[in-house]
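Exercise 3.2. Students should predict the tertiary structure of the chain below and write it as structure tokens, then compare their answer with the key that follows.

Predict this chain's 3D structure.
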Amino acid sequence: MTPASELALQGLRDLSTIKWYVIPLLAVVFYIYTSEMKKARESGDWNAVFAGFTVFGVDFLYETMNGWVFHFTRHSALWTTPGETALRTTVGWNIEIMFMFAIVGFVYYHTVSTNRYATILGIPNRLFWAAVYAAFCVFVECLLNIGGHLVWEYPFWKLSPLGVLPIYFAAYFPLFLSAMWVIGMEEDGKKARTIALIYAVAILLNAVALGLLGWKY
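Answer key:
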């Protein structure tokens, strides 16, 4: 087990680590969701809310699978967050990251054009911004890695010209593509069912691993 993994296991889901700044951040997240839901009820357009739930749900699924990688390797997850946090929820996830991904779907939605056929530089608008935001997220991750807050252990997933490509194409680009895919569906019912399925899979995997099998990740 890597030193970063050992550190990440310390204080895992320990509520005594919670800091007071979590409370106002939680209020901000609630405000954003309730505001967007109010707008959706008035306009009938729920795509912003769907985008918000989709991005967080997919990240929830990613972090679950990252925990599974750690369990089966007993060495390291693909990414590990061993640094100080107000609450470490998994070896690669913490409350600060969760708050960020809880609202980044709204950022993406409010950036893209309401016209799904609009283009930028000949690239579909929604695809263009998915690529741009994925690149920005990878850039931020690189800064966190340099600062030692986010640790990458494996040679195919590291800070190098080729090493960041899996991070981009396997993690962040699909994350924003998922939001693009869901809001591009024709029926709200289908969007809601798709999002529910994403959460159901993530919750089931965690229930089996943490609840039934007693894994720690």
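Discussion points: The radius of gyration is 18 Å. Residues 47-73 form the longest helix (27 residues).
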